[in-house]
């Protein structure tokens, strides 16, 4: 019971951390720092942290072999560098609510990627879920509501967020074998190092060009939040909770994150919620629910399952 409460607390805190980021990032971008600069600070900070910690907790653990090395490099390019560059670029252009809704489709991408890369079975129910989620995502991307007055490039931002969710879904499929074979910090140190090589060429000028002397205290606090809480603490809590959480419980928190993002965005005056967005959310949530159902005629052991975990930005 005590451990169950800790799992719920960890997953809820992770959801709050991610949900708040959709609104807090809008304070920093683009007036104080561009999206690529923020990504560079996040990834370089995390690479240093995980690199040091991995040597302390698993000093003898190394990623060995050509296949695992290539997989780790792909994870760093797709899941860390590419994923975060796409996310912050998209969030810079679109609204917090649209971004949070579109990111929810990552479990659908996991199922599609698992079918292509791992030959996992796709049932008729999952096909229906993919179609339902796709329709919901398309309506978000193509919608023209009042938010367009505030975000004139929202369609481009929505496409970036969709690509971000796709990259993260593919990353989950690629990284799972590494996480089972090596210590988590060993994997994280390697993929964040690769991610840093991807992000720095895009963001180093943004980091150097920022006028730090005019940053108010709350902007400094939000940057620290994105580097420390969003990138490091959220992952550590999520990784610990995934060892004990059931797929059904993870599904609940997949749906909770955009709900919290909506509440935070509306309460801070960063966005507005409409009935059209409620319908879009229902379509996407319905699609995610259907694809998350395991085929009844296929017995899947826990160690063989690809986790449909909450989205990490």
From TrEMBL:
Q: How does it sit in the membrane?
A: Multi-pass membrane protein
Q: What is its main location?
A: membrane
Species in which this protein is naturally found = Hymenobacter elongatus
Q: Where in the cell is it found?
A: Cell membrane
Question: Domain named EamA: which ranges?
Answer: 10-141, 156-292
InterPro entries in the cross-refs? Diverse_Substrate_Transporter, EamA_dom, EmrE-like
Q: Which GO terms describe its cellular component?
A: plasma membrane
Q: Which UniProt keywords apply?
A: Cell membrane, Membrane, Transmembrane, Transmembrane helix
Tell me what this protein is called.
DMT family transporter
Q: Which residues cross the membrane?
A: 35-58, 70-91, 97-117, 124-143, 155-175, 187-205, 217-237, 249-268, 274-291
Domain of life where this protein originates:
Bacteria
List the Pfam families hit by this protein, alphabetically. Answer: EamA
């Amino acid at each position: 019971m005590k451990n169950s409460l800790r799992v719920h607390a960890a997953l809820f805190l992770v959801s709050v951390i991610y949900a708040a980021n959709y609104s807090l990032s809008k304070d920093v971008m683009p007036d104080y720092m561009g999206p690529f600069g923020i990504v560079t600070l996040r990834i370089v900070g995390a690479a240093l942290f995980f690199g040091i910690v991995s040597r302390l907790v698993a000093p003898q653990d190394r990623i060995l072999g050509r296949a695992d090395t290539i997989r780790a490099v792909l994870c760093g390019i797709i899941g860390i560098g590419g994923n975060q560059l796409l996310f912050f670029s998209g969030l810079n252009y679109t609204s917090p609510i649209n971004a949070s809704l579109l990111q929810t489709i990552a479990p659908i991408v996991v199922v599609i990627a698992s079918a292509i890369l791992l030959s996992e079975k796709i049932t008729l129910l999952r096909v229906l879920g993919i179609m339902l989620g796709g329709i919901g995502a398309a309506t978000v991307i193509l919608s023209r509501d009042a938010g367009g007055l505030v975000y004139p490039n929202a369609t481009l931002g929505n496409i970036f967020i969709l690509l971000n969710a796709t990259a993260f879904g593919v990353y989950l499929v690629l990284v799972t074998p590494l996480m089972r074979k090596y210590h988590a910090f060993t994997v994280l140190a390697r993929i964040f190092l690769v991610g840093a090589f991807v992000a720095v060429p895009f963001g180093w000028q943004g980091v150097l060009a920022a006028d730090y002397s005019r940053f108010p205290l709350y902007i400094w606090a939000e940057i620290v939040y994105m580097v420390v809480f969003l990138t490091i603490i959220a992952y550590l809590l999520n990784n610990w909770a995934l060892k004990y959480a059931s797929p059904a419980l993870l599904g609940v928190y997949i749906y909770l994150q955009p709900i919290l993002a909506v509440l935070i965005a509306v309460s801070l005056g960063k966005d507005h919620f409409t009935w059209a967005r409620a319908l879009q959310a229902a379509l996407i949530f319905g699609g995610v629910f259907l694809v998350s159902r395991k085929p009844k005629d296929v017995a899947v052991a826990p160690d063989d399952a690809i986790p449909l975990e909450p989205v990490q930005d």
